[in-house]
Predict the 3D structure of the following.
Amino acid sequence: MKTLIKFFVFLLSVHFIFGNDGTFLSNGSVIYPINETKISLEKEILSFKCKDRTASVNVYFEFNNPENYPIKSLVGFVSPFYNYDLPENNKPEKLIRKFFVVVNDKILPYTKKWSQCDTCQLNDFSNQLNEEDMSGQIIHLFEVEFRPGINRISHSYEFSASSYVYLDEIYTYVLETGKKWAGGKIKDFTLEIDCGDNQLIFIDDIFGKDAEWAIVGSGRICNEKIKEDVFEDYDIRLVRIISGSLKIQAKNLSPERNVYFGLIDNTWFVSRMFNKGKFSEDFLLALSDIKYDDFYREIQLNPKEIQLLRNLLYAQYNYDFKNKEYKDFFSQFDWYMPDPNLKMEDIKFSETHKKCLKRIIELEKIKK
């Protein structure tokens, strides 16, 4: 699953390099120069706000042109075509939405092309062109003039989440291209991730041992790391967000992999992928069944397991159990942060969790 990022396209006798979205639908790219080694990337602040399976991405760059004259570069931003079973707004023309590049307080014009491969001819979009005739990647092209000294570039867009095997939401961003600037490093890098309140985020730790991790709000950087086949190419950490966001800062970052994060399950903090042995297989299967209307009445759980399922819901809201058995059981998970000030009646469940709780109570009555 390693993402390839070095690609060349020939256009009007100009060679340019651009970040490639690789395996997953939900990718972006830093902006980086065409055969340019003089300009350095001094600062990058990358911000994700993820809501309703859509990521709004804002990137702030500071580049330094050490020369006393402007340097022009043609820059490309690449995204893949959508899978045909994805929502309507993921059609090729709408995969990357609300795309803007602002250089030194000026919005840049861009052209949008598509190509079948990384070295194939660039094509215009056409209303007469059938979707099945288009494959490969979408390319936004724009020209940047780097003035002498510091240049400020803001880059923003939005896109929909991907999913894979046991992962409900995946968001990625091509960061390896940061090594293409002078010095081969991003001198000052900040990543901010806001997936909303009461979440358990997975993220690949690509930031180095000296990186600073912090919760802006309340939560915990979990000690537990996940080593499963689906994550075999990654160094996955879990981050528990009660409220607020995750912030990671690194100096002189020369990234060897791209930003990769998301939600393993956007309803439950446990998963068939990494909680085997702590729960029965029937219990783990019930986690998905309880989210849907069709099959939850057929869940094969005994009354004690149904009670555990209900209390898992309260544990995800950090209820401090008076029952020692439940408190000890959930305390084995890093994401459980019991709040002694929280009363059960004060818990504000999400609409999804309200629906799950209603079904669990119904199951309790059925299984009596």
In short: Residues 1-29, 82-88 have pLDDT under 50 and may be disordered. The first strand starts at residue 8 and ends at 11. The two ends are 47 Å apart (CA to CA). The longest helix spans residues 351-366.
